[in-house]
Amino acid sequence: MIEKPFHPGAYIQELLIWQKISTAKLSNIIGVPESVIVDVMTQRRGVNKEFSKNLANYFGNTSQFWLSLQESFDRAKANNKQPKPNEIRPH
Questions:
Q1: pLDDT tens readout for residues 61-82
Q2: What is the span of the domain harbouring residue 43?
Q3: How confident is the model over 48-67, as a mean pLDDT?
Q4: Nearest to 32 by CA among 6, 7, 59
Q5: Does any domain span residue 1?
């Protein structure tokens, strides 16, 4: 069974709930527009290198952690879009 890919934005959302802080407060703390944070949390945008550094500095992990989450999500999404062998039809 293939599980739904886990977007880094979902993890950010869980951390904000756990820490009881808003997107506006995180925005002020890490110096990133709130719209960027909301876009990542709603999967309209991914985590890039610069944003990953900001997240790592605040949450106490590494930039690579965030980039790896994004890469894993992107890879899983790409794999899920691949047709299954029984869906391939000759022309």
A1: 999 999 999 999 999 988 876 5
A2: 8-76
A3: 97
A4: 59
A5: no
Distance set, CA 86 to CA 7, 81, 90 (Å): 28, 14, 11
Using a cut of 0.85, tell me whether the model's pTM lies above it: no
Q: Residue 68 carries which side chain, given as an amino acid letter? A: S
Which residue do the tokens 């995180």 mark? 26
Q: Counting every residue, how long is the chain?
A: 91
Q: How far is CA 66 from CA 9, 55, 87, in A?
A: 10, 8, 34
- Domain annotation covers residue 91: no
**Could you give the CA distance from residue 10 to residue 14 in angstroms, rounded to a whole number?**
6
Tell me the CA end-to-end span of the chain in Å, nearest whole number: 29
